[in-house]
Specification:
Blueprint (H helix, E strand, L loop, with lengths): L44 H12 L8 H19 L5 H13 L4 H6 L14 H12 L4
Helix pairs in contact: 1-2, 2-3
Amino acid sequence: MPGPVPEREDNLARPRERKGKEIVPVTKGEARPVKIPNADRSWHPIALKLWESLKTSGQADFYQNSDWAFAYSLCEDLSHYKQSTKRSGQMLQTIYSAFERLLVAEGDRRRVRIELYEPVEDGPSASDDAIEQYKRELGLM
């Protein structure tokens, strides 16, 4: 989706569907089991770091085997670029733009309406703990 990075859904004053924007229905398919390939240990350290971060990032939940193969190819290209003595700004821009397709940066994810959130803890909230402490102090427990 071209244009500026949209606001996070929870920062909007009202839902997008109420803003007069057409909601496009989603075509669904079945996710298949995924096998993440091992990194090539001869890659440049930056390409290795990027590969390892992809494996632990939230957007990896959506990756299929073809996405991992594409990411592998891009890390190979990035490594070649970083290890080269002759570098082209156009080549780096092309590699970075390809990483956008993998939704590597938050802005890229928000453009396609994917937002990653911190997991919610199942335990008692801070307010519950405070109320219990007050009850103990007042002798109500």
